[in-house]
């Protein structure tokens, strides 16, 4: 027979109101002894509170939505791990949604999360998204954007990295090593993330008084297949390059594969720098020099920021811009002796 809140109250010798307050963490006016007694009896009888009923009382479901664009990209599982760890610490559950970088899937998942009455959403938008969601104009669901810098209804805060500075330092490293003809294989330049990285690339070239060449910019997606294709495009068009700065590590890994197949030695003939520092960067050959994003910290702090909004009913929080770090490995070499 199912144990009810009435049964717990009876066994504990207290009112149902007292039990309800303890279950819903509204027990400031209840003694510790009574609280401990009720919790002990709940454990003895394996009583599990009805989350739907509890949400009607607290106006909270203790659930957060996490929407990411590509679970196959190793950058995002680490971000999700950080979000999950913080959510567990705070007693929240996470509904995980993978959109495959598909804007229509984002619409579907945001609607689903709204229907499930999540308390808030952590959202890494598709690189193709430029506007918000109609449903959010009718729902007061707070959203924290991660790794994306766009504005729409519901966004209460953002966690991003300094993409401009990260790209600048990555390209400067190539230049300091002695590579001078540097191509940029980018993700979609419709996203502010990619635009900032392109601006950092341009600034680094300018610092070395190297002319910017439009032909050295190749725009695609954030997948290894694009890096592979882009290198073959550079070669087929006869565009000279001795260094490649990539929009992310997956692009860089695809680029290195294409270079190898064309008998071009990395890093002696071409230096390659990625962005993200996913765990695979340390496993490929040669090991990839990369601009590290603190992806675990981004996920962790996103949930921290969201719960602060939920608990304290804040309208907005200050955006957080995290620093990147250049991790030097074997896909670049200092004092390179180029022919």
Q: How large a portion of the residues is in β-strands, by DSSP E? A: 15-25%
Alpha-beta content class:
alpha/beta
- How many alpha or pi helices? 11
Number of strands: 12
Oligomer description: single chain
Q: Calculate Rg over CA atoms.
A: 25 Å
Runs in which pLDDT lies below 50 for 5 or more consecutive residues are: none
If classified by CATH, what would the architecture of the largest domain be? 3-Layer(aba) Sandwich
Look up the CATH topology of the largest domain: Rossmann fold
CATH superfamily of the largest domain: Response regulator
* CATH class descriptor of the largest domain: Alpha Beta
Instruction: Provide the spatial order of strands within the biggest beta sheet.
Output: 2-1-3-4-5-11
Please tell me the overall pLDDT.
Answer: 90
Helix content: 40-55%
Order of helices and strands: HHHHEHEHEEEHEHEHEHEEHEE
What global shape is seen? elongated
């Amino acid at each position: 027979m199912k144990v009810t809140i009435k049964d717990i109250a009876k066994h504990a010798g207290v009112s149902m109101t007292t039990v309800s307050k303890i279950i819903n963490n509204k027990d400031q006016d209840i003694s510790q002894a009574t609280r401990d007694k009720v919790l002990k009896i709940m454990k003895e009888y394996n009583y599990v509170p009805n989350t739907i009923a509890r949400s009607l009382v607290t106006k909270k479901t203790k659930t957060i939505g996490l929407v990411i664009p590509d679970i196959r990209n190793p950058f995002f599982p680490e971000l999700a791990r950080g979000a999950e760890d913080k959510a567990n610490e705070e007693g929240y559950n996470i509904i995980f949604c993978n959109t495959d970088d598909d804007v229509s899937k984002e619409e579907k998942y945001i609607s689903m999360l709204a229907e499930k009455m999540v308390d808030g959403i952590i959202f890494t938008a598709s690189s193709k998204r430029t506007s918000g969601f109609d449903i959010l104009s009718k729902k007061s669901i707070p959203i924290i954007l991660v790794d994306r810098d766009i504005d729409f209804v519901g966004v209460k805060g953002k966690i991003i990295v300094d993409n401009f500075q990260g790209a600048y330092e990555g390209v400067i490293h190539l230049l300091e090593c002695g590579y001078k003809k540097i191509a940029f294989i980018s993700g979609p330049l419709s996203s502010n993330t990619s635009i900032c990285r392109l601006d950092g690339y341009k600034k680094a070239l300018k610092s070395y008084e190297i002319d910017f060449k439009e032909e050295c910019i190749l725009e695609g997606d954030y997948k290894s297949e694009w890096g592979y294709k882009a290198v073959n495009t550079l070669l087929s068009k006869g565009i000279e390059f001795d260094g490649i700065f990539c929009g992310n590590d997956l692009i860089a890994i695809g680029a290195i594969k294409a270079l190898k197949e064309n008998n071009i030695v990395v890093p002696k003939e071409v230096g390659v720098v990625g962005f993200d520092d996913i765990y695979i960067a340390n496993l490929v050959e040669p090991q990839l020099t990369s601009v590290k994003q603190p992806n675990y910290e981004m996920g962790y702090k996103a949930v921290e920021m969201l719960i602060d909004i939920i608990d304290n009913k804040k309208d907005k929080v200050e955006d957080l811009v995290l620093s990147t770090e250049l991790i030097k490995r074997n896909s670049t070499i200092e004092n390179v002796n180029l022919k």
